[in-house]
Amino acid sequence: MITPAYIRTMAAYNAEMNRRLYGAAARLSDAERQQPRGAFWGSIHGTLTHILWGDQQWMSRFDGWPKPTTPIKQSAGMIEDFGALGAERETADAAISRWASKVDDAWLARDLTWFSGAANREVTAPLQLLVTHFFNHQTHHRGQVHAMLTAAGQETGDTDLFLVVPDIVQ
Predict the structure, then answer these.
(1) What is the pTM of this model?
(2) Is 170 inside any structural domain?
(3) What is the pLDDT of residue 168?
(4) What is the pLDDT confidence band of residue 162, given thresholds at 50, 70 and 90?
(5) Which domain, by its residues, includes 25?
(6) Residue 36: exposure state from Cβ atoms within 10 A (0-12, 13-18, ≥19)
(7) Is the CB of residue 35 less than 8 Å from the CB of residue 29?
C-alpha cells in the first residue's frame, strides 16, 4: 500500500505546508485567527490546534509520544497562544520527520491495536492504513485552513503535492 519513501515524502510535505499556513496565519491578528469561520473546528487557530492534537494522538501510537490530555471535542482550544502553538507545531514536524526516517517495511507490515476514543472501542488496523489516515487527516484539515486563510486575504503559495515536493525532497 505505502512505502517508507512515501512516509518521508509526506512528512516533508506536512512540515512545508505547515510552515506556509502558519506564516500566512501569522500575518493576521489574533482576533482574525480566532474568528469563527464556519469550519468544523471553528476558526483558523482552532483548526490548526486540532491538527496538532491529531498528530500528537497518532504519534503517541506510532512513536511513543505523550498522548494529548485534552479530549478531542476540546482539541481546538488545546493551546490558546498562537506563538506557543507555532512552536509546538515546529517541534512536532521535526519529530514526525525523525520518525519517518526510521520507518521500515517490517514496521509497516504490522497491525496496531488501541482503544479509540472516537469509536469508543478497541480497534485493530494495519499500520499502513493508519499512517495513510494520519497524513490524510492533516491534509484534510489544512485544506480547511487554507480556505479560511484565502477568504481572509492571505496567500500560502502552491499547495499541490507535486508542486511542493520537488522543492523539499531531492
Answers:
(1) 0.94
(2) no
(3) 59
(4) confident
(5) 4-163
(6) exposed
(7) no
